[in-house]
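#onboarding

Welcome to the new folks! Below is a worked example of what a typical request in this channel looks like: someone posts a single protein sequence, and someone else replies with the predicted structure as tokens. Don't worry about understanding the tokens yet, we'll cover that in week two.

Example request:
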Amino acid sequence: MCMVHEVTGAGALFDLSTGRRISLPPHCERYFSSCGSIIGNGDMVCSYAAMGVDPVSGRYKVFKSTLYYDSKLFSNRQWVFTLGVDKSWREIRPLFTGYTYAAVHIRGIIYFIPQISDQSPYIVAMDVARERVLRVIPFPPCYQSCRPQRNYGWVSWIKLNGRLAFIIMFIPRQEGWPSSECKIEIWTFEVEWEKQTVLVPLEESEAFDQAISIGFASNSMGEIVFLLFLCERMSPLILVYSFRRDVWRRVEIAGVSKYPKTGRVVTAVHIDDEIAASFLE
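Example response:
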């Protein structure tokens, strides 16, 4: 797992199977032109990192997208660090202008999803081995219209059955969703975007309706995992949906201390069932 501080850019990698940690090298926060001269202060605004495996060498690489601000101008710069090879970050050609919203690694390709804008209207597919852009992909047709769900955090980009997938939750109590039923739209991409709509059963719908925060993940069996923090519960709840069999199941979590019911809760869930080798060995 790769974690990078959004503001400072400091980061580390964690081997979830062993609990070991490796720090990423520090990153200079001043903005340099291609010839090496400093342009103004070049303050770092935010960073986003994604980790992938080079299918040729078998080595892990960390790609970091950093947004800088200088003289009333924003600029995005892209860096890469290869574990066991590099001693510092290497700069590569930037993928797009603006902020990186999410990234998904699938079979040696990292899909970088920017904050959509006129300057960044496409998803960028990066070849991990060659460190080059393979192609650009349009956003799903629904993306612009699902702004309320994106504001609530009820959307997610994941890998599902070997494909890039975009998940949208439609929850009855949310603003702009007049229906009384809870549903999920699952958009998957191969050659073009395909949509599947899932109507959520009553019991699971009530759980989603009480959620103050939702985390999303998937596993190699084609299941979508939802981690819910609920308004009326002391412990979070896990709901698992089988995309192929259209079956729901729930996992109760015990032994979690009571958390505040006010304020913003950030929820993250990670499924660790596809580790081929430890990157720290």
